[in-house]
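Listing S7. Sequence submitted for prediction.
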Amino acid sequence: MTFPADSLYDLRGLKCPLPVLKTRKRLTALPSGTEIAIETSDPMAVIDIPHFCRQEGHELLHSEKTETGHLFLIRKG
């Protein structure tokens, strides 16, 4: 799956809770309906990012395991 460079947010190398905190901050600045892709290497992100989306009212459109961690596609609610 490929994304435009401006929609890909590279959070690899960060440990819990930083991927969620930085995702929250990025989404706050974006209009509703915007889609962003998040790349993480934190193994807890597979639990934390979907939970964050449910709690905050965002839609998790896609989640996949990658060679370096996980990739998530989120639509801001």
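Caption to Listing S7: primary sequence and predicted structure tokens for the chain studied. The longest strand covers residues 59-65. Helices lie at 18-28, 45-56.
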